[in-house]
Write a structure and sequence with these properties.
The chain has 608 residues and is of the alpha+beta class. The longest helix is centred in the last third of the chain and has 23 residues, at 520-542. 53% of the residues are buried. The chain has a seven-stranded antiparallel beta sheet. The chain has a five-stranded antiparallel beta sheet with strand order 5-6-10-8-9. The chain has three domains: 10-177, Uridine Diphospho-n-acetylenolpyruvylglucosamine Reductase, domain 2 (2-Layer Sandwich), CATH 3.30.43; 181-302, Uridine Diphospho-n-acetylenolpyruvylglucosamine Reductase, domain 3; 307-564, Vanillyl-alcohol Oxidase, Chain A, domain 3. The chain has 20 helices and 20 strands. The chain has helices spanning 4-12, 17-24, 40-49, 76-82, 86-90, 135-147, 208-216, 232-238, 245-248, 276-282, 322-341, 355-359, 383-398, 418-425, 444-447, 451-461, 481-484, 520-542, 560-565, 569-579; strands spanning 54-56, 128-131, 151-155, 170-174, 181-188, 196-203, 220-221, 255-261, 267-271, 292-299, 301-302, 307-316, 345-351, 371-379, 406-416, 438-443, 472-476, 501-507, 596-598, 605-607. Strand 8 and strand 9 form a beta hairpin. The structure holds flavin-adenine dinucleotide (FAD) and 2-acetamido-2-deoxy-beta-D-glucopyranose (12 copies). InterPro entries: BBE (IPR012951), FAD-bd_PCMH (IPR016166), FAD-bd_PCMH-like_sf (IPR036318), FAD-bd_PCMH_sub2 (IPR016169), FAD-linked_Oxidoreductase (IPR050416), Oxid_FAD_bind_N (IPR006094). Keywords: FAD, Flavoprotein, Oxidoreductase, Signal. GO terms for molecular function: FAD binding; oxidoreductase activity. Its cofactor is FAD.
Length: 608
Amino acid sequence: MVPAFIFRLAAFGAFPLTALASIERPQCKANPLESTWPRSTQWAALNESINGALISTSPVASSCWNGSNYDSPFSCQTVESNWSSSVFHASLPESIGAWIFANNSCVPPTASGYTEVQGCRLGGLPSYIVNATDEQQIATALRWASDRDVRVVVKGTGHDLNGRSSGAFALSIWTRHFRRLERKTAWKVPGPANTTQDVIIAGSGHGWGDVLDFALSQGRVVTTGQDPSVGLGGYIQGGGHGPLASTYGLAAQQVLQMTIVTPTGEVLIADDSQNTDLFWAIRGGGGGQYGIVTEYVIMHFTAPESVNFGSIMLAPLNEAGENASLDAAAVLFKALPNLMDQGVAGAMSLASGEAAGKFNPSAPSETKGAVATFAIWSFNMSESCLDGLIKPVADQMRAQGDNSTLSVSYSASNVGNYSTFCSSISGSNTAGAGGISSSRLLGRRHLEIPHATLRSNLERALVAQNETAGTYMTIGLSGGPGVINKPDSRFGAILPAWKSAYLHLLVGGASASPNATVSPTTALSENAEWIDAHKEKLWREWAPDSGSYMNEANPYNTHFKHDFYGANYERLLQIKHKYDPNQSLFVLSGVGSDKWEYNLQSGKLCRI
Ligand SMILES: Cc1cc2nc3c(=O)[nH]c(=O)nc-3n(C[C@H](O)[C@H](O)[C@H](O)COP(=O)(O)OP(=O)(O)OC[C@H]3O[C@@H](n4cnc5c(N)ncnc54)[C@H](O)[C@@H]3O)c2cc1C
Ligand SMILES: *[C@@H]1O[C@H](CO)[C@@H](O)[C@H](O)[C@H]1NC(C)=O
Ligand SMILES: *[C@@H]1O[C@H](CO)[C@@H](O)[C@H](O)[C@H]1NC(C)=O
Ligand SMILES: *[C@@H]1O[C@H](CO)[C@@H](O)[C@H](O)[C@H]1NC(C)=O
Ligand SMILES: *[C@@H]1O[C@H](CO)[C@@H](O)[C@H](O)[C@H]1NC(C)=O
Ligand SMILES: *[C@@H]1O[C@H](CO)[C@@H](O)[C@H](O)[C@H]1NC(C)=O
Ligand SMILES: *[C@@H]1O[C@H](CO)[C@@H](O)[C@H](O)[C@H]1NC(C)=O
Ligand SMILES: *[C@@H]1O[C@H](CO)[C@@H](O)[C@H](O)[C@H]1NC(C)=O
Ligand SMILES: *[C@@H]1O[C@H](CO)[C@@H](O)[C@H](O)[C@H]1NC(C)=O
Ligand SMILES: *[C@@H]1O[C@H](CO)[C@@H](O)[C@H](O)[C@H]1NC(C)=O
Ligand SMILES: *[C@@H]1O[C@H](CO)[C@@H](O)[C@H](O)[C@H]1NC(C)=O
Ligand SMILES: *[C@@H]1O[C@H](CO)[C@@H](O)[C@H](O)[C@H]1NC(C)=O
Ligand SMILES: *[C@@H]1O[C@H](CO)[C@@H](O)[C@H](O)[C@H]1NC(C)=O
């Protein structure tokens, strides 16, 4: 309850509101260097109130550091050999895939980003972790943290590319052990109508691989990402695109209900008939911001009976073919919306410089042109039908050069059912993506532009800070009919740019990396600056009316309100304030995050 004197002061207007705010809310979130940090007896009391589920953070690679104060369940050798596996990081309470956001603190000597000066300390890792198994534990811990101004972070798998599942001096809620997985063929649809729906109910601790396997065992599919180890929590809340997106839509469009614990400690059910504001926000408004989801009710679909799988490979054969390869890439990009409308799906990489050789061994060892590897798939479509759609495009690409300068090859075949297909496209569950990327969604209007402009945009998207090393971009055929044709009610807070998106472009190119004299903070900010000057600038010219896919975007985007949330921003901010009044949950580029500064150097999170 607000004390009466505050009302009086406020009513007189003599008391500046900022002063009021500072009485109720300290400048910084609690940290161990200040007296507001809970004493160990208080942490012990919290632990007791949540059935002993509190873990004091201990970095797994501490076994690689002599004289470290921490224990690790694994030998340094085991840690080193598993460091590049995101399955490994997901299995641990504290670990994350993108360690630069943990300040590269306590990484094994063979890991990228290792420097001896970083030492073995907590760095950007949370101080304590709740290994939660039920909602009440989370509710108790969140209320406790909110009352004490302790920062809260959420870890599902720790896959986040932007450090959003970690944070210095935080209490982390680890959701891995919410493992319900069940199909309900006659789930009662919330609301007055007496209707039922065939759904899957999944705890947010699962990786998508588990949920897909469960669905496939019953001839069904769910809208996963390409990599089985990605988790439900952050993927769904950011949107979630994968191999079925252009057919059935984004993951956030499949959610019918969720169970969520709010930062003030309420356990709520959110769906189309109750807590509808939260239901709207969680579907696309960003993970780790409004509350902690423990369970999702999602739609599933009949598994495709047959899948065609193939590729277009494009490469210049020599220097004379470099320009033609960019022309051919532009021709391909322009053709994609029509192909997608006709049922073609896929994902592509476009690379330059030395990076090109990684995608296409027959490409020149270094090229200023573009090397494309386009994986194509289509469901329930005859091979001849797919060939009929792709071959004319491949011919048009070839016509940009000749067979002494340019190579364009196409092949595809029926690979059987969805299970077989999935095992051939599944990623390698790799962890450790380093630098900063940038993302843009493109609609038909951004591709049906003059050829020379499109070509030059692609060339700019492939610019690398180190030209010799080059860079690559990943292009997801992630929008299209499955996403666009959904009714407004299924969009929730998904960025409105998805309503007309066909392609998702994910680009890199910045090359600063931390070393003994360049701290992670400095490397991150140098990369962010370069990305802004080269890639964000390009998007602002090419597709100013569009935006980014926040889960694979630049977390230091200076236009994040527009690019990540668009017209939904103000409403999301209101919902954020309603459910998280003490702002326990902070993530980079989160709603309301512009009022805070997270300093990876000091670890402090303070109002600005
Ligand atoms: C190898 C790899 C492949 C990928 N492939 C794809 C892809 O094909 N398609 C795609 O769309 N994206 C893909 N991504 C990006 C992916 O969407 C993001 O990394 C996403 O954040 C993962 O969510 P998570 O819950 O697994 O990760 P986490 O790191 O655990 O969480 C990510 C964010 O969500 C929050 N969060 C997690 N769980 C909850 C919860 N239960 N309640 C509230 N907040 C929560 C966290 O606080 C954090 O902010 C990929 C990432 C990797 C590393
Ligand atoms: C919490 O309690 C459990 C059970 O008593 C104990 O094993 C664990 O070490 C405690 N956690 C902390 C951080 O003290
Ligand atoms: C740690 O100690 C072992 C055994 O004393 C030694 O062989 C090793 O070189 C030390 N490692 C480091 C990083 O100091
Ligand atoms: C480490 O990797 C090896 C080989 O890939 C695997 O067998 C082992 O289970 C992994 N260990 C852990 C702890 O994940
Ligand atoms: C992060 O690393 C830098 C050195 O690169 C160090 O000065 C700083 O204290 C570290 N921050 C934290 C929170 O550990
Ligand atoms: C977390 O809790 C689960 C379920 O109780 C348990 O099996 C697991 O060992 C715990 N993990 C850690 C690291 O405490
Ligand atoms: C709802 O439908 C079920 C099954 O069709 C039926 O048994 C039940 O009587 C219906 N209830 C109402 C209130 O209409
Ligand atoms: C493929 O065909 C099966 C059987 O007709 C059907 O149930 C399924 O919905 C189809 N899938 C797609 C993606 O067209
Ligand atoms: C490629 O195009 C650029 C202009 O975009 C031009 O300067 C260059 O000479 C061309 N190279 C070849 C080999 O034609
Ligand atoms: C290359 O193209 C020329 C002219 O179209 C054609 O005559 C020749 O057979 C082609 N060579 C190969 C190897 O395809
Ligand atoms: C898919 O095909 C494989 C190989 O033919 C088979 O083992 C599997 O049972 C099939 N799965 C489904 C869901 O039909
Ligand atoms: C640029 O990349 C090349 C090839 O990977 C590498 O040899 C070179 O050292 C890099 N240059 C700089 C300035 O980092
Ligand atoms: C660290 O990197 C910077 C920038 O690339 C470089 O100037 C510096 O010499 C490097 N320092 C060390 C110790 O490697």
